[in-house]
Amino acid sequence: MALLELHPDTLESIIASDGIVVVDFWTPWCGPCRHFAPVFEAAASAFPDIDFVKVNTEERWDLAAAAGIRSVPTLMIFREGILVYRQMGAHSESQLTSIISTTRTLNMNEVRAHVEHSLSQYE
Q1: Which residue, of 6, 34, 51, 62, has the fewest CB within 10 Å?
Q2: Kindly report the CA angle at 97 between 8 and 101, in degrees rounded to 5?
Q3: Is the peptide bond before 48 cis (omega within 30 degrees of 0)?
Q4: DSSP codes, 47-108
Q5: Rounded to an integer, what distance in angstroms lies between the CA atom of residue 54 and that of residue 38?
Q6: Where are its TM segments located (predicted)?
Q7: How many CA atoms lie within 13 A of 88 on its CB side?
Q8: b/e string for 79-105 if b means 16 or more Cβ within 10 A?
Q9: Is the pLDDT of residue 9 over 70?
Q10: Are the C-beta atoms of residues 43 and 52 closer than 8 Å to each other?
């Protein structure tokens, strides 16, 4: 899928999908964000079965705050509604491709079990 336009309340519904969602939190004045933009757009073209979402943190500070964004760019990847990757800083094309490939191979039953175990430690 191409880059998705973000509307109010759509990020949560997009993330909750059964597929993979790659989210780039960025801002227009950020040099590394501008450097990463073409890499992100190329990946969106190369992986049409994945949703790619750009969140301008100046316009959607509410989403940035809810996601705990403290630095841009920040890349988040969700699979089946679960956050499986979060990293600040720009990524190279090969890094992003590798991360996406790894995300595709995750055993989601193991991921869910790990999440449940981690959450149970806080009860």
Answers
A1: 62
A2: 95
A3: no
A4: -TTSEEEEEETTT-HHHHHHTT--SSSEEEEEETTEEEEEEES---HHHHHHHHHHHHH--H
A5: 12
A6: none
A7: 8
A8: bbeeebeeeeebbeeeebbebbeebee
A9: no
A10: yes
Q: Which residues carry out catalysis?
A: 30, 33
Q: Which amino acid is at 29?
A: W
pTM, entire model: 0.89
Query: What pLDDT was estimated at residue 122?
Result: 77
Going 67 to 17 to 2 to 87, the CA torsion angle's sign is: positive
Write out the two tokens for 8.
Answer: 């109010």
* Alpha carbon 2 to its chain's center: 14
Q: How many independent structural domains does the chain possess?
A: 1
Residue given tokens 């780039």 in the structure block:
24
Does residue 58 register a pLDDT over 80? yes
CATH of the domain at 24: 3.40.30.10
Ramachandran assignment for 73, one of left (phi > 0), alpha (psi -120 to 50 degrees), beta (any other): beta
Please give the helix or strand (H or E) that residue 119 lies within, else none: helix 108-120
